[in-house]
Write a structure and sequence with these properties.
This protein has helices at residues 5-19, 22-35, 59-81, 86-98, 102-115, 122-132, 136-152, 158-174, 178-188, 195-219. It is an all-alpha fold and 244 residues long. One of its GO terms (biological process) is protein ubiquitination.
Length: 244
């Protein structure tokens, strides 16, 4: 399948980026962040032509100049093609993350997921961003959706999957959802990176189940008072959803 001119230009910029030095990458990312606002997220809306003052521009400066020209052309065709490119949104989110601007990064990863993630990386990055921001419920929901999508496409993203399973196992354990915690911890046993943590967590789950059973038996003494104690491992399902 042939690439469009815009896709060829994006790949060209990606190739340049891979060959730039760290300072050059930082300069490019700062330029992109200054001109590409996460609140508008339209290609080229506020992107002005890069002004190069040097009388004899370097190859890097020429590349930035060419990028700015291409970016303006992309913006003119954006509404005809598609209003957002998830790859650019993910790249921008990564740039914000490197600058420790986590809320801005979260917005970019959310938008990339919402508009249709081309490379399948936005959702796991969004989940990790929720985790860094201590938004536990949002993170658990995003990890759950990521696992569902990864399993549907037979993904082999071992590092991401084992981290997602372990996060959910701990999350459900802390919220007394022992069945869900046990299921996710069991899946962690398949990965060397999380195997030992999973063993520890499974022992904790078993101990809590025994404590729950003891409490249930003790509650039988009060049946004449119609007292009931809900089973800890069978609480109603959580409604996990995530928003930006």
């Amino acid at each position: 399948m042939s690439l469009t001119s815009e896709e060829q230009e994006i790949r060209c910029v990606q190739h340049w980026f891979q060959n730039w030095t760290p300072p050059q990458r930082a300069e490019f990312l700062n330029l992109l962040i200054d001109k590409y606002s996460p609140d508008t997220l339209d290609l080229g809306r506020n992107f002005e032509l890069l002004q190069i003052s040097s009388n004899c521009p370097s190859v890097f400066e020429c590349q930035l100049k060419q990028f700015s020209l291409w970016f303006d052309e992309w913006s003119l065709k954006a509404q005809q093609l598609r209003p957002y490119d998830s790859r650019m949104l993910v790249a921008l989110g990564e740039a914000y993350e490197k600058l420790d601007k986590l809320k801005e990064a979260k917005k970019c990863f959310w938008k990339a997921h919402a508009v249709g993630d081309v490379e399948g990386m936005a959702l796991i990055k969004l989940a990790r961003m929720y985790e860094k921001l201590n938004e536990e419920k949002q993170s658990a929901a995003a990890y759950t959706d990521y696992i569902r999508d990864a399993e549907a496409r037979n993904a082999t993203d071992r590092d991401e999957l084992c981290h997602a399973y372990l996060y959910l196992a701990k999350y459900y354990y802390e919220h007394l959802k022992l069945e869900e915690a046990h299921d996710n911890a069991q899946k962690c046993l398949d990965y060397p990176e999380t195997k030992e943590d999973a063993k520890t967590l499974l022992r904790q789950i078993a101990a809590r189940r025994m404590q729950t059973e003891d409490n249930r038996n003790n509650s039988n003494q009060f049946r004449n008072q119609n007292a009931t104690t809900p089973a800890t491992g069978h609480l109603s399902p959580m409604n996990l959803t995530f928003t930006p």
